[in-house]
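Weekly structure sync, notes
Attendees: PL (lead), two postdocs, one rotation student
Agenda item 3: pending single-chain targets
PL asked that the sequence for the first pending target be pasted directly into the notes so everyone works from the same version. It is reproduced below exactly as submitted, 293 residues in total.
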Amino acid sequence: LPKTFSLKQLKVMLKRLFQLSKLNSIKKFDVTYIILQQYSQKFPQFPASPFTSKRIRIYGYFLLIFPVGFFVLGLWQVNRRKWKKQLLRELRERYCAPPVELPDDLAKLNDMEFCRIKVCGQFLHNEEFYISNRLRRDEAALDTKSHFLVDVHSPVGVHVVTPFLVEGKGYRILINRGWVPNELKDPKRRQRGQIEGRVEVTGVNRLHEKKPPFVFESVPYRDEYFYRDVVTMAKFHNTLPVYLEADSSSNVPGGPIGGQTNVKVSDNHTTYIITWWSLSALTAFAWLKMFFW
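Predicted structure, written out during the meeting:
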């Protein structure tokens, strides 16, 4: 305290403090605030703190869960964003790499999703089936400005999946030859594209897909599929659970349009980070406003 602050003044201040402490509006733990208020009146050059001391009950500490929790969720999305960027980089590297031969150990394909595989053999067109409700996704079909389909009669079609007898191996795999509009689903209307004999196909290796939400279940005895249900397809068509999506280099006149593989993966983590940290800041401000300001 300054030297000009006499003992008499201190006694007067403590007396007033004792009187104020009897008021219901002043809590016992508000002593610091009261002293600062009295001190600032005597010495204006030392203003009182703008923060008031209020009792923080159990529910107050419980409310801290919200700003802290939202902040932690934001940190989690930061890590998720790093993981997604790395995943996209790896997928593009695999997809852009030169095609390789089908490995002898087919179990290796589980670690080769989005790798391009080159196979030779023969299509079994009489056993083809379809994945319904598919949009055309090859680059030639997309308008770069509007991203709507162009040069097609129908915006929705099917993917033509055909069992393929691999040359020199003696087993059959599944090849998604590509997209056709619904009006060309019947193979009789696209006989020109039903190539016979030995062919070489380059396709992108894809694994079994879990059923997406709001999508119909597969009906294999009707050859009706609505997602990449590789396990069921292989079981009902007597093939190995190997599924290749033909790229555009395998297109033939009058046949399905290959190159339907979607390499893009949604990345909304930046939006999630902003959302969670904004909520954390807002709830932290509300908590401080409630208990300190």
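Discussion points:
- The chain is about 30% helix and 20% strand.
- The first strand starts at residue 100 and ends at 101.
Action: rotation student to compare against the earlier draft before next sync.
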